[in-house]
Design goal:
Length: 387
């Protein structure tokens, strides 16, 4: 038996997505910028997909910019805003951002930008008042992740966005983990920029999108043609974009039912593992992504079993989980997310994440819980034997 519980890292493309991509590659392979009939057919596919992705978040058609993924969308949001200013200003992020936000922020610091990284509580939440106190007269941009990929915590984005808006700052959120799992409505949510990724919603890898509220100015990261409203030059990856569009439509159709189902499975997993000694849930249990469970494992004496050790042991049992974010799971350093939440460096190497998806069943949850308990028991016994 093989069970995949790493849907936060990537999701398998749905059959309808694959069929749409194959159709484009064999029948609508023209350049969308060309004026002839081959180009026109491809342009129609492109704009249909744009409408489908826009519908997922209730956005206007001309506010969606296709990118090569969530990372590029995040970079375009931060650097695209920053490059509209002649002089460095002040920006605010949280201390639990994905590296796609943390790294470009570090680059902006080398360019003279002032950066405030908001602290979080033990559950990984930013308190709105902390943001309010951090605002300065030259704060022009605030970026707070919506759903944290490593610990599952949901931020109070509506409150945080409103505080930034009242101040006159542009507000961006990375909603890569939230899209397709919880409702998103940019007409009511006070966000100016919002990042999406196709392969988190059962679309292909290599394509994402940035929502840009009308009236928000950005500078492109690349020089080239005028594609994507002159914000993302280069011939569009049409098969990927078409697949993204189909995935967005299916996600919107299934959202309510799937959210309820995943929440029940997630809570079933937490309940099944509640009595495991040393296994401590991480993140906010009340404000949490519906598909996400995360833990840190320590022995009763404070010794720690690394997350990577558990991932390897579970993999030998045919079960796929991760040690924190997929982008950092291969590193030996402590998780910056867990350390920001107040965990020690030793404990911050011991996080694991189990993320559920369309193919997860109650039987899967029960089996995974049973196997994980056995793996943990063996790992702790081995650790105590070494002492």
């Amino acid at each position: 038996m093989q069970i995949y519980l790493d849907y936060s890292a990537t999701t398998p493309p749905r059959p309808e997505v694959i069929a749409a991509m194959q159709s484009v590659m064999t029948e609508q392979w023209g350049n969308p910028s060309s004026l002839h009939q081959w180009g026109n057919r491809s342009a129609t596919v492109l704009e249909q997909a744009r409408a489908q992705v826009a519908d997922l978040i209730n956005a206007s058609l001309d506010s969606m910019i296709f990118t090569a993924g969530g990372t590029e969308a995040d970079n375009l949001a931060l650097l695209g805003v920053a490059h509209t200013f002649d002089q460095p200003q002040h920006l605010i992020i949280s201390s639990v951002e994905h590296s796609a936000i943390a790294k470009p922020t570090e680059f902006l610091e080398t360019q003279g930008w002032q950066v405030t990284r908001l602290p979080v509580d033990r559950r990984g939440r930013v308190h709105p008042e902390v943001l309010r106190r951090a605002l300065r007269s030259n704060t022009v941009l605030v970026s707070i992740i919506y759903g944290q990929s490593e610990v599952g915590t949901l931020q109070p984005i509506a409150q945080l966005g409103q505080i930034a808006r009242d101040h006159g700052a542009i507000f961006h959120t990375d909603a890569v983990q939230v899209a397709g799992r919880l409702p998103l409505d940019v007409q009511t949510l006070p966000v100016d920029l919002l990042s999406l990724s196709s392969h988190k919603i059962y679309g292909p890898q290599g394509v994402g999108a940035l929502y840009v509220r009308p009236g928000i100015s950005l500078q492109p990261l690349l020089g080239g043609g005028g594609q994507e409203y002159k914000l993302r030059p280069g011939t569009q990856a049409l098969p990927n974009i078409a697949g993204f569009g189909v995935a967005a439509t299916l996600a919107r159709q299934d959202l309510a039912q799937e959210c309820q189902r995943l929440t029940a499975l997630r809570d079933r997993l937490f309940a099944a593992l509640a009595d495991v000694p040393g296994l401590v849930p991480t993140g906010d249990l009340d404000h949490r992504l519906p598909h996400h469970a995360s833990f840190c494992l320590t022995s009763g004496d404070g010794d720690h079993v690394s997350g990577k050790t558990l991932v390897r042991q579970m993999n030998l049992a045919g079960i796929g989980i991760s040690a924190g974010s997929a982008c950092n799971s291969g590193t030996l350093t402590p998780s910056p997310i867990l350390t920001a939440m107040g965990y020690s460096d030793a404990a911050a190497k011991c996080g694991i994440r189990l993320s559920l998806g369309r193919h997860t069943t109650p039987e899967d949850i029960d089996w995974v819980a049973l196997v994980l308990k056995q793996v943990i028991t063996r790992s702790l016994d081995a650790l105590l034997t070494q002492v």
